Amino acid sequence: MVNHLYQNDLPDGLDFGTSVAIDCETMGLVPGRDRLCLVQLSAGDGDAHLVQIAKGQTSAPNLERLVSDPNVLKLFHFGRFDIAALLNAFGALATPVYCTKIASKLTRTYTDRHGLKNLLDELLGVDISKLQQMSDWGAAELTEAQLAYAASDVLYLHQMKEQLDERLAREGRADLAKAAFDFLPTRARLDLAGWPDVDIFAH
Fold first, then answer.
1. Do the domain assignments include residue 202?
2. Is 154 in a helix, a strand, or coil?
3. Using CA of residue 89, residue 12, residue 186, residue 23, what is the dihedral sign?
4. Which end of the chain is more exposed for a tag (fewer CB within 10 A), N or C?
């Protein structure tokens, strides 16, 4: 595994192929309030590319192009949050998308544990540490432990997608999952617009 750390944006010419795993670290869990601090990406090749976002930064052209590229599938775990964080920070709406948490909830109905750590343990036999999850991502210099934690959030999403796709097909829920993934960008927009906890489909 190699961690590549960049400041403010991805470098020119970086190619992630047809799918890229993405995760975000923020100052908190409210996208409209808590600023984006770090964006992690991986092509599923064992390398992680980490982009540190400066306070007050409103543009990252290369990252924005990748996020909104219709020919690149963006893989997330709990995409609803990350899509909103990227949209709030840069105005770039991620599409098309795939969310391993949604896929897990549609297939692993025998458990209520759908966190990344649980999925990695069961599906891939990988044990990751979550000790840095609640740390200061707004610090000017991130620790090696923070960088390693951040990388672990994207390094395995491609492998997890393969496992979850098999289960979705087996249970006859692939079409349902696709429809849920397609709605995710709109769900993120609703969160930012002020409807995070309201079921707009209710009577």
1. no
2. coil
3. negative
4. C
The pLDDT of 150-156, averaged and rounded, is 95
Residue 201 lies in a domain: no
Q: Name the helix (H) or strand (E) containing 37.
A: strand 36-42
User: 73 forms bridges with which residues in the sheet?
Assistant: 19
Average pLDDT over residues 169-193: 97
Tell me, what CATH number does 172's domain have? Answer: 3.30.420.10
> What is the sign of the dihedral through the CA atoms of 158, 184, 62 and 70?
positive
Q: What range defines the domain where residue 137 resides?
A: 2-10+17-193
Q: DSSP 3-state assignment of 73?
A: strand
Mean pLDDT score across all residues of the chain = 95
Other beta carbons within 10 Å of 180? 18
Does residue 203 sit within a domain?
no
124-143: average pLDDT: 86
Q: How many residues does the chain have?
A: 203
Q: Say if 98 falls within a structural domain.
A: yes
Query: Using one digit for the tens of pLDDT, what is the confidence trace for 10-67?
Result: 999 999 999 999 999 999 999 889 999 999 999 999 999 999 999 999 999 999 999 9
